[in-house]
Amino acid sequence: MGMSTLKLLKYVLFFFNLIFWFCGCCILGFGVYFLVHNNFGVLFHNLPSLTLGNVLVIVGSIIMVVAFLGCMGSIKENKCLLMSFFVLLLIILLAEVTLAILLFMYEQKLNESVREGLTESIQRYHSDNSTKAAWDSIQKFLQCCGINGTSDWTSGPPATCPSDPQVKGCYVKAKMWFQSNFLYIGIITICVCVIQVLGMSFALTLNCQIDKTSQALGL
């Protein structure tokens, strides 16, 4: 009974992490693509490293490392790797909860900082190619213009702005999109947290089962 339970837990955790490792590879690949092509440029000059490519590379790398530890720890029945996998998942989960609390507490301050950053980047549109690329990509993707509307462009809206004079600003449109999809974003966030907790539970259970099996075999 102990050996069959151990095998089941081992392969469930292995395939669970293998799927996530492939997901991490895909995210990392998209990140490298955006870094090479630099389609989205730099929008916030006070945070020059905060680009879509950099974020995807970091997230993809973290997922790959954590999933690799989970795969190797389960298939090799290595307690050290399993506990490393557990600790990393716990740190990520705590970081996510902390980030959510901070975003809730400083929502107003964050909104003001984003507006200030966007206003500054609009002023750099004609002098900085990276900022121009970022605004052009956003306005094409969201079908918006400026921060609050066409009036943000003092020298006239660029060609990437929609021709509709009543077009909404990108900040307004992004906020509306977030509010209208808040339920789905919340469900996805909860699902991610549940998956992390399940991964931690499987790792701990497998770790305990390895101990029990070793004792039963007299190892």
What does this structure look like?
The protein is mainly alpha-helical. The protein has seven helices and no strands. The chain has helices at residues 2-37, 52-75, 79-105, 107-123, 129-142, 170-180, 182-216. Helix 1 (2-37) runs antiparallel to helix 2 and helix 1 (2-37) packs across helix 7. It is elongated, with a radius of gyration of 23 Å.
Feature tags:
elongated; 7 helices; 219 residues
Please describe the topology of this protein:
Blueprint: H1 2-37, H2 52-75, H3 79-105, H4 107-123, H5 129-142, H6 170-180, H7 182-216
Helix pairs in contact: 1-2, 1-7, 2-3, 3-7
Which structural class best describes the helix and strand composition?
mainly alpha
The whole-number mean of residue pLDDT values reads 83
Q: What is the number of helices?
A: 7
- Helix share, percent: over 70%
Q: Are there runs of 5+ residues with pLDDT below 50, and where?
A: none
Order of helices and strands: HHHHHHH
Biggest sheet, in brief? none
Strand content: under 5%
Number of extended strands: 0
* Shape summary: elongated
| Rg over C-alpha atoms, rounded to the nearest angstrom | 23 Å
Distance between the termini: 18 Å
